[in-house]
Amino acid sequence: MPAPRETSTVRKLRHLPDYLRPGFDVVFVGINPGLASAAAGHHYAGPGNHFWPLLHRAGFVPEPLTYEDDWRVPEYGIGLTNLVDRPSRGSDELSREEMAAGAARLRRKLRRYRPRVVCFNGKAIYEAFARRSCQFGLQPESLPAGRRGAEGALVYVMPSTSARTASYQRDDKLRFLRELKRIVDREAST
What is d(CA 37, CA 188) in angstroms, rounded to the nearest whole number? Predict the structure, then answer.
């Protein structure tokens, strides 16, 4: 199925930059930029998105940040990227072909930058990436490292921080992020 036609409003939205470099402790992967994020030019800018307050409450960053501070996350060993670059109103507007192409690009990025842990911010993202169903939490497999002899990144799946994810409230999401933080800290100390 071809990608939906883009409206002139969607065409005017900004592409969000990846914040990636070799050796990050954790890389957070979103599905694609929502319209609010693309309009603002920053990750997780949607109204009510829990990502930024929870990032601080879970201990990933020492001070509260907002979406306007997304460029600062590399200071804390954190990367940000998306499965699909194209903004949309919702992930249901993404075609299977777009997600498959995005998964291939993401695999190349992760092999290139080799983070310790990759966190998929939403179950549907990982399921599109891995082409299998999963449970929340640490996954049984790691991602290939891309280098002979190097270990691959651990994979963690959490409920989406989007406010639309009503089945998991803010405190539930915080529990997952705190568990992720323990895993990241353990991996960083080895």
Answer: 30
